[in-house]
Design a protein that fits this description.
Helix content is 37%, strand content 25%. With 390 residues, it is α+β, with helices and mostly antiparallel strands. 41% of the residues are buried. The protein binds adenosine-5'-diphosphate (ADP) and magnesium ion.
Amino acid sequence: MDIHEYQAKAILAEYGLPIAQGGLAYSPEQAAYRTREIGGDKWVVKAQVHSGGRGKAGGVKICADEHEVWEAADEMLGKRLVTQQTGPKGKMISRLYVEEATSITAEFYLSLVLDRCSERIMIVASAAGGMDIEEVAKNNPQAIVNISVEPAVGIQKFQAREIAFALGLKAKQVNQAVTVIEACYRAFRDLDATMVEINPLVVTEDGRLVALDAKMAFDDNALFRRQQISELRDKSQEDPLEMKAADRGLSYIGLDGNIGCIINGAGLAMATMDMIKDAGGEPANFLDIGGGASPERVAKAFNLVLADENIEAILVNIFAGINRCDWVAEGIVQAMNKFEIKIPVIVRLSGTNVEEGRKIIAESGAELIIAESLDEAASKSVAAVAGGGA
Ligand code: ADP
Ligand code: MG
């Protein structure tokens, strides 16, 4: 789960991360009021959306007076911000963070991620801050330092100093860098985070280290024990179909194609998507209905897939072990009647109770295209789409 910049800053500040003074705004009036509250003579208005790259997309504006802040807020609120990371639809800006503008002399990159290979938290830093770290990693990998943390002892001060020296920080800032790194590490470890990213971490004109941007992501599987974190969830920033699926216990990932997939098991789902591609088609989604799926659950899966407006055919591919083909068949028939499906539906059933399943389908009179093998199911789906509908 991702959270907003202002939320990450509030959490990390409690752990000792130095941040600029700021406040949240839901309206231009409130944004203007924040400038008086914060004081100073320059402010930054920042769109709160779950995405990086906001600066380049017009989601971060430096303003010299209250009126400019009002205008920037008015311009951003209620709009969708399209960044390099959001896809063409962008993400709705419904809140802003107004912050004092900091005069920057150097920008650094700092992040903590979970390295699944070494099963450790890895600290990644670079003096090439403020830019796309992916670009730096590709074109200038020696500009990145990383250190992995031994979980039994946690981050050691010498390690944090090593990072600070590698970034070329002056003696005066090395201790501040240790504080920053320790704060991020403790927050990461205590809160079941999967990522903490400070980009940029800056040195101000008066020599202080300040985090100007902060991003945190959390392990969904640990949210049950992190109530304060799960309350920070902003569903308006998530893909509505993926969210709907997750709330119903289905794993769904939306894709760009036109063949909807309803499949049991992640492995079979991946294989089916490959077969569709191989036959010259494009899957519209990854959807795993899981084991022991009831007819209602299968019908829900149809509902979900049909909500994608690009769908031109649906392929149901079930290899039943724990699942039962007769239940799946009942679910298909229910969905065909309930949703009055007009697009071609290709069904391949195999495994437990397959005979009963086929019988239910045959007796229902539902117009379905039956396939025996995965190969056949994939090519029939692609042919159905190419044929321009039913
Ligand atoms: P994003 O990473 O989504 O583009 P950032 O918060 O990193 O958003 O902002 C983009 C850039 O705007 C930063 O790299 C920094 O140069 C500048 N910036 C952000 N916040 C401030 C601030 N409080 N004062 C001065 N400059 C800022
Ligand atoms: Mg940033």
